[in-house]
């Protein structure tokens, strides 16, 4: 018996130690093992007005889920990230646009200038690794022009609190040298980050489709556009000095500036040319690889009927695709589009027509090898996320007709590519529809 007890206690101690290790690290270990089986992806490049992967055309059908990193922070919400990416993959979607920022707010990634929350950085690691697991590429946005998740307002506040800010104006984000340095430090930290799950630095990870410098930039204190143009030239060059692999876009809404003839014929109204942004001028910057445009006619025209909005939608898209083909010689990607359910005349069937119009324009451009490179729905969620929803969001499988329309577009675009998305499930999905 003595000998038996002598063996028992070491075994018990070893077993207890293993349980502790499993409880502490088991989840992470399992994640790492799973992601070792992730599908191979290649970098997306640009060839003239088209995206290419391994030399073959790559047209994008995708969506926005801005909330992925935020929900990856806590274990009890993390499952939503995988559920959403898996759902996108099953629909044949290839790119998801999401925030790679959270400045100074709850679950902040950047707590103060140059001070980062490692727990939230690891949440971003998880989002990128999980996306690769499902064959989805990410368009990562680096800062918000709006106040949500901190944005440029938070950067200005930090500089003001430290007593080094030149102005309390939110637009000093674009011209204050100290704030520019804050943002450059942020860019460098994100781009050079080594993913704790995959072991790949972000700048070397083909899971990332492209970097978006800022969501919906406006600099209303300088309607000439010079301030924003100077900032975009500097920041795009800085990104490219660190990252030689990835594409870069601005994050524009698509409004034409004060010197553009289209300000009078295509912009919603005169106000759109006085926001300090200029679609043509900003997109012509050499380090900007493709143009970005948003589509929200119901936000721009409060008195338009739905039929009027559809007509304007076509005019808006065709104008920007023409710019890509003839003036920019770059792809044009519609990185947000949506139809509000708060419109007085809203009916769910209107979204079907709205989406179909967008998809048909992209398809026709792709068919003739044009600059219309793809479109991203704003926005998709999973069940139980009402507090993250807005008047555009939806759970994709809750409206079968719209779900079918999205899948149809994925399959139509895939025919031009030879399924370069490297999603084996997409080929099977499209065969079922034939």
From TrEMBL:
Organism's domain of life? Answer: Eukaryota
Q: Which InterPro entries match?
A: GH, Glyco_hydro_5, MAN-like
Q: What Pfam families does the record tag this protein with?
A: GH5_mannosidase
Any one Gene Ontology MF annotation carried by this entry is:
mannan endo-1,4-beta-mannosidase activity
What processes does the entry annotate via GO biological process terms? polysaccharide catabolic process
Subcellular localization: Secreted
What UniProt keywords are attached to this protein's entry?
A: Glycosidase, Hydrolase, Membrane, Secreted, Transmembrane, Transmembrane helix
GO CC annotations, alphabetized: extracellular region
Q: Membrane-spanning regions, if any?
A: 6-25
Where in this chain does the record put each Glycoside hydrolase family domain? 42-380
Catalytic activity annotated for this protein? Random hydrolysis of (1->4)-beta-D-mannosidic linkages in mannans, galactomannans and glucomannans
Give the enzyme's EC designation: 3.2.1.78
In which family does this protein belong, per the annotation? Belongs to the glycosyl hydrolase 5 (cellulase A) family.
What name does this protein carry? mannan endo-1,4-beta-mannosidase
Q: Which species is listed as the source?
A: Parasponia andersonii (Sponia andersonii)
């Amino acid at each position: 018996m003595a000998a038996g007890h002598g063996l028992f206690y070491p075994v018990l101690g070893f077993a207890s130690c293993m349980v502790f290790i499993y409880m502490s690290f088991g989840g992470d270990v399992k994640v790492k093992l799973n992601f070792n089986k992730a599908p191979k992806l290649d970098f997306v490049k640009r060839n003239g007005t088209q995206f290419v992967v391994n030399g073959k055309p790559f047209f994008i059908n995708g969506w926005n889920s801005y909330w992925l990193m935020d929900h990856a922070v806590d274990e009890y919400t993390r499952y939503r990230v995988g559920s959403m990416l898996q759902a996108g993959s099953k629909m044949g979607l290839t790119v998801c646009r999401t925030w790679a920022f959270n400045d100074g707010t709850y679950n902040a990634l950047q707590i103060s200038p140059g001070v980062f929350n490692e727990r939230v950085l690891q949440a971003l690691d998880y989002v990128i690794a999980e996306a690769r697991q499902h064959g989805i590429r990410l368009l990562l946005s680096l800062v918000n022009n709006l106040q949500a998740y901190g944005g440029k307002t938070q950067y200005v506040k930090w500089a003001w609190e430290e007593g080094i800010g030149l102005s309390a104006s939110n637009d000093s984000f674009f011209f204050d040298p100290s704030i520019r340095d804050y943002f450059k430090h942020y860019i460098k930290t994100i781009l050079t980050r080594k993913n704790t799950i995959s072991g790949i630095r972000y700048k070397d990870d083909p899971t990332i489709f492209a970097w978006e410098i800022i969501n919906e930039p406006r600099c209303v204190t300088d309607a000439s556009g010079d301030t924003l143009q100077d900032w975009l030239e500097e920041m795009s060059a800085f990104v490219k000095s660190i990252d030689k692999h990835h594409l870069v876009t601005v994050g524009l809404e698509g409004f034409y500036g004060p010197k553009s003839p289209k300000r009078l014929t295509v912009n919603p109204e005169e106000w759109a040319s006085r926001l300090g942004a200029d679609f043509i001028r900003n997109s012509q910057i050499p380090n900007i690889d493709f143009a970005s445009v948003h589509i929200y006619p119901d936000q721009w025209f409060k008195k338009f009927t739905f039929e009027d909005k559809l007509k304007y939608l076509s005019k808006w898209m065709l104008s920007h695709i023409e710019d890509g083909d003839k003036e920019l010689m770059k792809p044009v990607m519609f990185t947000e589009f949506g139809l509000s359910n708060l419109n007085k005349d809203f009916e769910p069937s209107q979204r079907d027509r709205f989406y179909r119009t967008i998809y048909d324009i992209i398809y026709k451009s792709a068919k003739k090898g044009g600059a219309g490179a793809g479109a991203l729905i704003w926005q998709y969620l999973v069940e139980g996320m009402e507090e993250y929803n807005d008047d555009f969001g939806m759970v994709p499988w809750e409206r079968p007709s719209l779900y079918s329309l999205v899948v149809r577009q994925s399959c139509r675009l895939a025919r031009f590519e030879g399924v370069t998305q490297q999603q084996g499930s997409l080929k099977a999905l499209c065969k079922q529809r034939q």
